[in-house]
Amino acid sequence: MGNLQSNMQHCKFEVPEIIFGRGLLNQIGACARRLGGHKVLLVSDQGLFSAGWVDKALKHIVEAGLKVVLYDNVTSNPKDVEVESGALEYVRHGADVIVGLGGGSAMDAAKGIAILVSNGGRIRDYVGPDKIIRPLPPLVLCPTTCGTGSDVSQFAIINDTEQRCKLTIMSRCVAPDISLTDPDTLETLPDEFVCTTATDALSHALEAFFSVASTSLTDVHAIKALRLVSQSMVEAVKERRPQDLENLARASLHAGMAFSNSLLGIVHALAHPIGGLYDANHGSINAILLPEVVKYDIPVVTEKLPELAWGLGRRTDGNVDVASDIIQEILVEMLEAAGAPRSLRSIGVKREDLPELAKRALKDVCIVTSPRQADAQDLLAILERAY
Amino acid sequence: MAEAKRTKVDEPNLERLLGLESSKIGFYSEVKQKINELEAANLELRIKTGELQAVFDAISDSVVIYDHRGCVQHRNRVSPHLFPTETTIGSCCKSLFHPDRDQAPESCPVELALAGQDSQISFSLADRIGNNRYFDVTATPIEDANEETRALVFIRNVTDKRLNELQLLQAEKLSSIGLLAAGVAHEINNPLTSVAGYSEALLRRFRDNEALTSDPRLQDFKKYLEVIIRESYRCKGIIDSLLSFSRKSEGAVGLVDINEILGEVLELVRHRARNERIEIRELFKADLPMVKGDASGLRQVFLNLTMNALQSIEGPGNIEIATVEHDDRTVSATISDSGCGIAPAMLEHIWDPFFTTKEVGKGIGLGLSVTYNIIKMHGGKVFVESRHGEGSKFTVRLPICQP
């Protein structure tokens, strides 16, 4: 690929088949059938079940003439044990296609199950490069939150319950065959999740935009996502108008397409170990870290700031300093208005764990594309400020 | 805060994460590999199947597999030779085991196997020329791929064995009867000799003594004595035949020309044939190899057979007598007639001593049993083919003399 920034002839942009639109959950069975499946393992969670979406999905799958097995024991920050028992269900019932319906947790669990049933072993065996050597079963992912991006990305984040850490699996193999978004599903999403998942999308877009591997192909999606979030996030949390919710779903999709092809940075490098250690909400952690990391990055991405400010709806006439101030201002404003948490302490992080978290973040894959170099000291400083 | 430094891009690492090579693993190679594996497995299966079929075909018994409905599913190569029509693929067990009944009898081996039981039975079947063929059947239940029960049936042709057994039985019977008869004959011979001797002595006295002849009270005695003597000799005749039947051959053994013997026999019967307007055809093979045997015994054999042939013909008819040399160092003589033939029910009894279909006084039923015995002593075979109402054909087969 060469240097992605300097060498634009070399770039690669990869996304799955994407279907987006209200009411399109009714395509869920047809999608699975198109991929050659006969028996679906539907991976979901209790929240979706209570909201009635699981039943709707089951109905559409059966209407498409497919058999279906439900596995809805996924919890937030999906655990390796949940993935293993889901894989057992898949094998025991002889399923041949996997459909994930839910937030990042359900979708990542679906990915983990797909890995285990085709490649065997345990989830922790697949951390690191090129551990997946056999193709996965067909995979359809239907996000029902507005932030994860898992439905287009090559990431799967699973909690290792023994080592109490997040396992980051990164392989194009875990990108689904079809991403199917029905914004209607956001209408039952609890308020705090609208906020935390939208901040996740926001951090995806920002980090993708700043990433050393960003290209014009990823930038357009990142900017589009930022635009939609800045227009609709606060409104969506407060008013919950369908149009705003749809904008956030769209933002999440664009942000996902951006970071899948440019990767992320320090926010996610730090968020992963924190999520692993405390089982805290991933969107909340991002919301707390994002302003601090943007402040840290700004000095090395000055040439990109005017475009970013424009994306957030402000003209700066190319003035970097103005843009820098405006960006940080808007960011904090948005997060506060949406009611996002503002300190690590408030979500249960212990101060004595910070050095360990900084050390673990250095090993995370997301640190590779951070625009500004950071060592353990730098990371610890960011954590301290966000505490 | 330290001086802000741009990240030094870790090219190889980034290449690994986002480079041209990072993409989904396609199914094509996997599918191709699977196809290759399947094709290899398929080839192996074909070889295995061929091997099994070869083994199946090499089995000299008939092997037939009936499916769960009792219809033939597979059969080996021997089956059509043994049962041309009864084991065609798809034909039902009825056609082989119970052709006369639609409802399978409880003894049908196929039905038993389908019900999960092993069974062994024997049955016989008449072939197209009316000969009985005997078969031993072993039936075993086996499962097919769909867990349906099928019947694996082995059918062994035991006709030769069974016929040998029957002949052995017959021979045993005959030899025991022969021993019995010989003993009885000896016992009767002595008193008969006394009866005949004293009767003759009395008759001489009548002839030599005028006084007795002229005594009117004794006028019938001479006639009575003559009857006693005649009947005693008739009894002696029967007993002599019996003795000759059971006696070990005492004839002089030498080289015998069957054609010559047949010629002598024909001389004896020719006048009778002429009287009854029966034409005798002789098809003798020239230069027939000699057999080693007892000429008088063989003469008796052919006389018996020829007389039987003549007696079986009412009114005009014909007899054909032929001799043939065979590849297996045997010669055979056949006596065919256009007579009344032998009823199937009678066929198994004709060799029994004292079995006769002739009227009382015309024959005592020892001819064929004597024949049988003599031929057996010569190490030969005698057998008959007969169609009731159309005629019979007796064949005598004898080993030729080993130089």
From TrEMBL, chain A:
Enzyme class, first EC level, given as a word: oxidoreductase
Q: Does the keyword Transport apply?
A: no
> Fe-containing alcohol dehydrogenase-like C-terminal domain location, by residue?
196-387
Single GO MF descriptor: alcohol dehydrogenase (NAD+) activity
Q: Provide the E.C. number(s) assigned to this enzyme.
A: 1.1.1.1
Q: Which residues form the Alcohol dehydrogenase iron-type/glycerol dehydrogenase GldA domain?
A: 17-183
InterPro entries per UniProt: ADH_Fe/GldA, ADH_Fe_C, Alcohol_dehydrogenase_Fe
Segments traversing the membrane: none
Keywords of the record:
Oxidoreductase
Q: Which Gene3D superfamilies match?
A: 3.40.50.1970, Dehydroquinate synthase-like - alpha domain
Instruction: Give yes or no: UniProt keyword Lipid metabolism.
Output: no
One Pfam entry name = ADH_Fe_C
Q: Which family does it belong to?
A: Belongs to the iron-containing alcohol dehydrogenase family.
Q: What is this protein called?
A: Iron-containing alcohol dehydrogenase
Q: What species does this protein belong to? A: Geoanaerobacter pelophilus
From TrEMBL, chain B:
Give one Pfam hit by family name: HisKA
Classification from the root reads:
Bacteria, Pseudomonadati, Thermodesulfobacteriota, Desulfuromonadia, Geobacterales
Q: Under what name is this protein listed?
A: histidine kinase
Q: What InterPro entries does the entry give?
A: HATPase_C_sf (IPR036890), HATPase_dom (IPR003594), His_kinase_dom (IPR005467), HisK_dim/P_dom (IPR003661), HisK_dim/P_sf (IPR036097), PAS-like_dom_sf (IPR035965), PAS_4 (IPR013656), Sig_transdc_His_kin-like_C (IPR004358)
What EC number(s) is this enzyme filed under? Answer: 2.7.13.3
- Leading EC class: transferase
Q: Which domain of life is it from?
A: Bacteria
Q: Which GO terms describe its molecular function?
A: ATP binding; phosphorelay sensor kinase activity
Catalyzed reactions? ATP + protein L-histidine = ADP + protein N-phospho-L-histidine
Q: Which organism is it from?
A: Geoanaerobacter pelophilus
Which residue numbers delimit the Histidine kinase domain? 183-402
Q: Does the keyword Kinase apply?
A: yes
Q: Name the coiled-coil region(s).
A: none
